[in-house]
Amino acid sequence: MIEVRFHGRGGQGAVTSAELIAQAAIKQGLYAQAFPSFGPERRGAPVQAFLRVSDKPIRLRSKIYKPDHVIILDPTLLGTVNCADGLKPDGFVMINTNKSPEDLKKLFPGHNIASVDASTIAKEEMGVPITNTTMLGSLIKATGIVDIESWRTDTGSIWQDRPEERQCLYEGPQGNRDHKEVIKQLGPMACRKKAGRKARLVS
Predict the structure, then answer these.
(1) Single pTM value for the model
(2) Which CATH number do you get for residue 86?
(3) Are 19 and 36 contacting, i.e. CB atoms less than 8 angstroms apart?
(4) Number of structural domains the chain divides into
(5) What's the pLDDT at 144?
(6) Please, how many CA atoms are within 13 Å of residue 160, restricted to the half-sphere of its CB?
(7) What's phi and psi for 4, nearest 5 deg?
(8) Residue 46 is part of which domain span?
(9) Given this model, what pLDDT does residue 122 score?
């Protein structure tokens, strides 16, 4: 079983990220579980979401205290939350940041690190710094938690009635289609694919 803990702020979509991967895993024939840590948090306050993926039925219902991997959607959390708490020795810290590899190794000594400037990618593709969908490409590239084709099928099912847009998104503009307009419409999908290409393994 693979356990992932997401760290973000209220309104950034940490819960949605966990649910999207869970849906892709289930379509792949795996078992999955995704749920948030609810409390009195307001928008912008630190929040957590949890994801479990397994090839066997999942009986656990607790929060994840010793994750295999950690996803950090908002780099400003680093000064207030111990995001790597309980992380297994061979686990990955996947973080949205433009910090140098040297800085990241100091922040997370002894851990594998995958970084991607998700905020910039989201702004380029969608015009807003929504990083949750952007970070999914990094997660899949670093861990292989779900098969890329299963992930594409799950994502693509949202747009099953719009085959031209989906084709344009993955393979570039076809004919006279306005590729920028398609990216604007389907920005989250583009962000995830672009993040997968730009994810940087630090250690």
Answers:
(1) 0.76
(2) 3.40.920.10
(3) no
(4) 1
(5) 86
(6) 4
(7) -125, 135
(8) 2-147+188-201
(9) 79
Alpha helices in the chain (DSSP H): 14-27, 101-107, 118-126, 132-143, 148-156, 163-171, 179-185, 187-198
Unique residue bearing structure tokens 């890329």? 148
CA–CA separation, 39 vs 107, rounded Å?
28
Identify whether the C-beta of residue 92 lies closer than 8 Å to the C-beta of residue 113. Answer: yes
Note whether residue 158 is domain-resident.
Answer: no
Cβ atoms 202, 115 nearer than 8 A = yes
Cα dihedral across residues 15, 19, 21, 25: positive or negative: positive
Q: Are 2 and 67 in contact (CB under 8 A)?
A: no
* Mean pLDDT, each 10-residue run in order, the chain (203 residues): 94 88 92 85 83 96 95 90 92 89 86 86 77 82 80 53 40 35 40 52 57
